[in-house]
Write a structure and sequence with these properties.
The strands form 2 sheets. Strands 3-4-5 form a 3-stranded antiparallel beta sheet, covered by helices on one side. Strands 1-2 form a two-stranded antiparallel sheet. It has 1 helix and 5 strands, in the order βββββα. The mean pLDDT is 92. By secondary structure, the chain is an alpha+beta fold. It has one domain (7-74).
């Protein structure tokens, strides 16, 4: 099971990877934005994690490895 990390900024806004493990709506109105994309690169035969600007952050032949990396990266 992954740990849910919610970080609060000085304005009281919480930031985290979306999860349904806890009811985030109970904290208030939600504003959700995609932090990254995990997609397969057919030419290179690897999965890529890209940030919202399209910059490649991580690649691996395993999609599961990319998803695990993504969680670790955004939960720092």
């Amino acid at each position: 099971m992954n740990t849910v990390i919610v970080k609060f900024d000085p304005h009281g806004n919480g930031h985290c990877l979306y999860t349904e493990i806890i009811d985030l709506a109970s904290l208030g109105a939600l504003e959700i934005a995609r932090a990254s994309h995990v997609e397969f690169n057919n030419a290179l035969q690897v999965w890529e994690v890209r940030n919202a600007d399209g910059v490649i952050l991580f690649t691996h032949p395993s999609r599961a490895s990319c998803l695990a990396w993504e969680i670790q990266y955004f939960n720092r």
